[in-house]
Amino acid sequence: MKRREFLALLSTQAVAAPQYDLLVRGGRLIDPAQGISAARDIAISGGKVAAIAETIDSATSRTVMDARNMIVTPGLVDVHVHVYDGVAPLGIPADPTCIAKGVTTVLDAGSSGAHTFPGLKKYVIRMVDTRVYALLNISLLGQSTLSTDNPHGELLDLRFVNAAMAIKTIEQNRDVILGLKIRLTGNITGPNDLKALAIAREAADAVKLPLMVHIGGSYSPVPQIVGMLKRGDVITHSFRGGPGGIVDDRFRVLPEVRRAMERGVQLDVGHGAGSFSFETAEKLMAQEITPGTISSDVHQFNVNGPVFDLATTLSKFLHLKMPIEEVIRRATANPARAFAFPAGTGSLKVGTTADLSVFELREGRFEFTDSLQGRRTGDRKLFPVATVKGGSIYGSSWLPVVTG
Questions:
Q1: Is 0.70 topped by the overall pTM?
Q2: Contact of 75 with 394, CB cutoff 8 Å
Q3: pLDDT in tens, 299-329
Q4: For the domain bounded by 76-338, which CATH number is listed?
Q5: β-strands 392-393, 375-389: how paired?
Q6: Domain at 3-73+350-363+380-393: CATH architecture
């Protein structure tokens, strides 16, 4: 969509004492939290959703966005990103990749620890347009990135893993910290993984928040790790390829993982640069194992591919034959339920904050690449068109900010 085409979607009119500030008209609203997948008009006033109906008179609104032939969703929620730009090694700027691509709300998944969180709050959470919340890394230092120049993971030295400091930081920042994060790859932890996990478990239990656990190539077997997880905890990178995932060497889901899911442990995608495999996803979905949340794990080493953004990750699940309503559910209602976001996140119920996203669902031939360079050709792909945050039109990464 070109700039002039998007501008044509908007009209601003002189309305005496208009009832609404913005009317998003004629799109197909997919709001799984309300069970809606149908053409609806959405009226916004004072930054809140004021009305949803099959038809709302355009003359009642100061600004009208023509969303015919578009998909309209609640503002997407990505529960695994890395946006501590300029500090954490994986960090990227939040706005060009998140709100500009239809993602109004994100969880920074462990970029910061107790010693480094104040900077995330001051320079990212309070400064960017994207609504940024955080999972606190159990390491005081936050996340490290391993390379030949720095082979030292954040959990190799347990002197920097401190439950009391994590608890204190969370209690002082419950408005923006929604849980804890731990990475359990072997070269990050060495033999310390279960000890570090026990400390993270202690902190999570103390603050009564979920623990997100990054798996893949761990020092200890996955069944031991999963056995320490409780209802509400999240296993990210669940659909990874290679060793250390939730399947055995014949792609059968591990019985310990099934039992964990039965007791309320959630599966998250966390695509990333090395943690999503089409083959694994196909095998798991054939066993009726689906993710509770679909997240991108977008960071500087995958933002230019294979991840790009959350919309592209969601499109991969369209290719995997997940109905679009269920795909959107896993990026709106489900993440809002999994973590303690403010009431109304992930839905467009009347009276909630008016965060919404507009997408084109294009048909054609689209090549998708997973983290192992596996390729699939899909016939549908979501393209971000515009984002509304708190009733104000933000735009998109390839369109200018437009206001009425």
A1: yes
A2: no
A3: 999 999 999 999 999 999 999 999 999 999 9
A4: 3.20.20.140
A5: antiparallel
A6: Roll (2.30)
